[in-house]
Amino acid sequence: MPLTPRGDHNPDPTASVRSRRAGVSAESVPSASAQDWTKPVYEKSDGEKEMLREIIQSNQRLQVFFGHLQPSAVDDVIMAMYPKTVPAGSDVIVQGDVGDACYIVSEGSLEVFVKRDPSESGKGGKVMDLGPGSLFGELALLYNAPRAATVSCTTEVKLWGLDSDSFRMMLRTADAASPKENEDFVEACPAFAILNRYEKSELASKLQRDLFDADEVICDEGDEAEGAFILEDGVAVALDEDGKELYRYSDSGCIFGEVALLNGDLKRTATLKAAGQGCSVFVVDVDTFNTLLRPLHAELQSKASKYVYRPV
Q1: How far apart are CA 56 and CA 50, in angstroms?
Q2: Residue where one domain finishes, among candidates 173, 206, 221
Q3: Sequence-ordered list of residues with C-beta below 8 angstroms from that of 172, at least 6 positions apart, any chain
Q4: Does the annotation flag 138 for ligand binding?
Q5: pLDDT digits (tens, 9 = 90+) for 102-157
Q6: Does residue 55 sit in the same domain as residue 99?
Q7: Predicted model pTM
Q8: CA proximity to 234, closest of 251, 220, 218
Q9: Which of 69, 82, 116, 183 counts the highest number of beta carbons within 10 A?
Q10: How far apart are CA 151 and CA 111, in angstroms?
């Protein structure tokens, strides 16, 4: 069923590209510390080296940190990693603790929990699962802050760890200490203020940008929804079956296309189209919407209540 808004539309922006506020940045490393640091070396088989090299090349977040390194410097990162085996049921990192290492999962599965209220008992709510090739624990090192989540083993897990000093020195060498563009965007969006640093970083790593020209259809009414959208730049509109504009989205960071996901039937209730000079959006897949963005669902449901549904 099409939807009709209550209230006025937002005005068109005067420019097609919006400026973004600066995001958070990594802690700098003093030059003296860099001079005193000695690269650690942990021997590995050729197979282990190749496996880690493939993970670094294929993991988007690791590419952000180490993608600028020459092959020889990547080898230094690999050789600095140490093996660690953790039994099932154990916590690898605990929310609130001081971070001393980050980890790459070699074998096994883990769960990530986030406690939002300090008075909450237990580990908090489950946020996501991790498996081979996943990176975790880097945020506490990157921001010199307490652990933002608890990561627990559901099976015996084999990890490759990188200690905090090596992690920061490798970042300094790679000249990649500043967060990527997606993290700047997420940090600047008021809609995501309820998320903690871990969730924001995870969300940023999963966003996929898509560009639409003016009047290009983003999705049609009745389509199966594969995700929601976050407006980066430009304007998008919701249209009924006759092409009448029902709602206009022009605030950078606003979430739209969420109704089908909140309803659970995954059927688009309106046609979404780029307007003005077109738009740039980030696509949030269904799983990410239902896990990382779950803390926003109540607010999004409230927003959806402003729409008036009418029979076709």
Answers
A1: 10
A2: 173
A3: 29, 34
A4: yes
A5: 999 999 999 999 998 878 888 999 999 999 999 999 888 877 789 999 999 999 99
A6: yes
A7: 0.54
A8: 251
A9: 183
A10: 6
